Amino acid sequence: MKCFRVVLVFFSAVGIAQANVDSLAETDAGALIVNVWLNGVDRNIETVLLVTKDGEYIECKTLNELGVDPSKFVKNHDQDGFCLMRGSDIKFQNDDALQAIKIDLPASYFKDNNYESVVVTPARANFGGFINYDFFYSKDDFSNDFNAYSEIGIFKDYWLLNNAILYKDSPDEGQKQFLRVSSLFELEFPEKYLKLRIGDNTSVYNSLTNSFRYGGISFGTNYTDRPDFVYWNMPTLQGSAALPSTVDLYINGVNLYKQSITPGNYSLQTGATIDQAGEARVVVQDILGNQTVQSFPIYISSQLLRVGLNEYDVSLGKLRYNYDEDDSDYRDFFSKVFFRRGVAASTTLGFDATYSKDVSNISFMWTQGVSKFALLDTAYAVSDYNGDIGHAASASVSRNFGTWSFGLNTRYYTEKFQQLGFDEYDFNTKISNLAYINFSNLGFVDGFNLSYVDNKNYKVEGFESVDSKIINVGVQKILTKNLYTSLNYFKNFEDGDDSFNIVFSYNWDTRGNIDLEHSTDNGETVLSYSKNSLLQNGLDYSVAVSNIDSEFNYHGYGLYKTNIGDFRASYDEYTNNKVTQAQYRGATVLLGNKLSATKYVDNAFALVNIDGMKDVDVLRSLSVVGKTNDKGYLFVHDIIPYINYDISYDQNQLPLDYTFEQPVQKLSALNQRGYILDFKVAKTKKFVVNLKDSNNKNFPVGTVVKLNGNEDESYFIDSNGLVYLYLSKPVKYDLKLAMQEGKTCNTSFSISQTQIDNSNDAQVINLVCK
């Protein structure tokens, strides 16, 4: 690198440095273009160095480009665009051999960096609606049955109005043939993680009180439903670095998080994929190989809220009973408040209070991470049922070690404890215990799980009460690359029932799966073959033969997935009965002035419109979901709410004379809403432009032509002075020619739609560039 010294006026292509140095001429200042080393690393960036009687100055904008905060430096009294390289903790060295300056700065001089997880706000839905329908028919040798379930939804922006109806062909005595299952208006506030619901709803539950159905209003947070938002006690890694570095988080020796950082103070959100406990180790390594290591115990659980974060729900209305039998069984008025708060990284406290005329409950909840060892979740509740006071308590401890986990849970209720939403004597639990332990990757087996459930009930005269003590044991083993087996044992110690089940499953690559299963519960052995596809459309099917007591039974199942819904059919033949079932699930959707029969609207969906181009593959996050129809559009279903999807199409399937603007669009959606994604494509027309200079002469061969200021795309003049352009829009086009010695000239022209539609060969346009 050459170095130029200037005494009076410094001429350079460095931009504003010219003016800066001019004003310093009277101070006898010298100016150099030098390379910058920062904290021992060549940063491959040049700056202007001014040497004055007060000291050395460099351009403040260079510091800014290096992530250094210029406000921490003294500015030159004549030009505040230069920063002084002197200070008690600033080390400066001029290396003439390298024609560079070497600066050493502590981390406090760098800008703070906050590497927060990006939470994408869901898009506003287009106005539209849908009618879901689910028809089910069943017939055997003794009876037949037909039911139909339908949902009607209307949506726009962040709101949804939904109404569900059930039709029963043969209702039980006293039941209605047509039944309104639910009616609900829902409005989300995604930027604030809040949701308002008016209509039929289900209450929030805690470890001591179950949820119940009601008709009314609720308002509260909904971030626990959002997979894109980290609401639990994820560790925030904070520190400082003087050099570009990487930060690694290890838990129990496993690397779970990695992030590159720039110099300065940093604050890292470690993401939403960690839910573990143990010994944490944070390793910071700079680009020179220097390492710092910090170790500490940690317990991360989705049951522990982030510090200062509140989870709440306020609801009121009337309790609903027998929703699947009676659409008007609304009874007592109630109100309910549910609240939890992360008070510390390992402590979450809360309460749950409900009130009605006959039954009131209040529960206190405490979730505690015990160092790195376990998670303790406790609750205590009091109920008042017409003056009778009842009590309940629960405690659970759990731990996830990565390759194994365990949990213990116990709940106890006094006899007078009553929950809201239950008829008298419907709830008679005395004590309930659960214990489990799970292992994975044990070596000799790939998985082992053991669980024990113990339930005891109060004896109520006139009501049947059944206790249970149940143990389940399961073992899983991968025998070969394609062969897998599982063994399960079940025993109820109260009634003596037990059973053993063994399954061998062979993955026949793309040809399907073969399964062999035997159960001692009924002595049945089943051999089956199945073939399934993850595509939105296609045919899934299975056939099976079973044997019970030396009698053979035959089974068949098929699922035909189409753009207008899914058709299911099954046939089971037994020695004393034949059962045939058929089901169709689909929808009619109105979106973007398009009325179409589509798949059942379970999640969000999108209308992908590719400007009338038929038979073009449409992709959802790089997976093909189908082809556009004859009108150039396709409905894409199963878009899970709050997940950021890439919706695209295969532009290589467009005709060669077509151009496109944007082949990929991102979409984050809300449940059961519709979104219109328009992809613009256009047919191009070749235009030949004959360019002349002001002397009516051709430009030299290879002269670069830029269209509409697009620096990323260049056209070139050929030996005949012609340039070939492929255009698709009837607008004005600006041309810029870059000639030798840095000279340029400009010209423009306009084309009409008639010229584009003209089927004649390429049209010649004569222009003079000035």
TrEMBL record:
Q: GO annotations under biological process?
A: pilus assembly
Decide whether keyword Signal is in the record: yes
**GO CC term, one of those recorded:** cell outer membrane
Q: Which InterPro entries match?
A: Fimb_usher, FimD_plug_dom, PapC-like_C_sf
Per its UniProt entry, which superkingdom is the organism in? Answer: Bacteria
MF-aspect GO terms: fimbrial usher porin activity
What keyword terms does UniProt attach to this protein?
Answer: Signal
Q: What is this protein called?
A: Fimbrial biogenesis outer membrane usher protein
- State the signal peptide span: 1-19
The keyword Nucleotide-binding is annotated on this UniProt entry: no
* A Pfam family recorded for this sequence: Usher
